[in-house]
Amino acid sequence: MTPPEATAAGPHLTEEESVLAALGEARPPALEEHLRSCAACRAELGRWASLVTTVRDGETVDPVPLPPGAWEAVRREAGLAAPGRPDLSVVAPARPSRAGRLRRWLPVAAALVVGAALGGGVVGALRDRPAPLAPTVASAQLDPVASSGRGRATVRDVDGHRELDVTVQGVAAPAAGVLEVWLLDADGGLLAVGTMAGDQLHVPLPADVDLARFAIVDVSREPLDGDPDHSSDSVLRGRLAPDA
After folding, report:
1. 0.85 cut: is pTM over it?
2. What is the largest CA-CA distance in the chain?
3. What torsion, rounded to 10 degrees, do the Cα atoms 109, 48, 95, 217 define?
4. Exposed e or buried b per residue across 189-222, where buried means at least 16 C-beta atoms within 10 angstroms of its C-beta
5. Which distant-in-sequence residues (6+ apart) come within 8 Å of 211 by Cβ?
């Protein structure tokens, strides 16, 4: 899933940059600038984001027999030194260090890529198997503040930790900026959650975040000016309500 090697817009995203961006990692300004001018890399990031969402939403994946030689191709694609075959029957989100996340996800992503190239395989199993959803803790409808569009925020309990999903429709990032998600409280306090990849964001929430206090989900337009503070240009907002 690597785009062509180079264009006038600058060097394309590496696989590491694409995977980490799809996982919700902060993207440096140079990367954002390239994405704005490179349709190939935007499409590549979208494919990785779709794979990440598919794998994260599934607690387990049934083992699927691969054709002869398939695992060797997976191993080469993932850069694995040992010839041993891992157990791909269980796929779980990884949340240690940045490098740890990449090492955990690349073999899984490589298996998905090889499966697609072979006409199904692992990708077919992931697409055809309905992904069980983790229990919902809280949710919010995101309504326009000074814009059109709409959105939805959902907090789920995934194996004892909380994860936030935000999706938006009809809202585009500014030409020289990004869409950022925040949690606000009633006294003006705010927490930066993450930058949206296209129209979605999926991130784990810190264990100490009090959702009874930081109950407002805010989506803002943020210029790429190096200022980490809120721009005051909110486009969508909604209050999380606990699920009954």
Report:
1. no
2. 61
3. -160
4. ebeebbbbbbbbbbbebeeeeebeebbbbbbbbb
5. 137, 138, 155, 162, 183, 205, 240
For residue 1, the surrounding DSSP H or E stretch is none
Give the sign of the dihedral formed by CA 73, CA 75, CA 78, CA 79.
Answer: negative
* Nearest Cα to Cα of residue 232 among 145, 173, 143: 145
Q: What is the pLDDT along the chain (244 residues), one digit of tens a residue?
A: 444 444 435 678 787 787 777 777 777 878 777 777 787 878 787 777 777 666 655 544 455 555 556 556 666 656 655 554 444 443 344 444 444 545 555 555 555 554 444 444 444 444 555 556 788 999 999 999 977 899 999 999 988 899 999 999 998 888 888 999 999 998 889 999 999 988 999 999 999 999 999 999 999 999 988 888 899 999 999 999 998 6
Name the H helices within 58-168: 70-78, 98-117, 121-128
Domain boundaries for CATH 2.60.40 within the chain: 136-242
Q: Which residues contact 244 (CB under 8 A, 6 or more apart)?
A: none
Four-way CATH pick for 136-242: 1.20.58, 3.40.50, 1.10.860, 2.60.40: 2.60.40
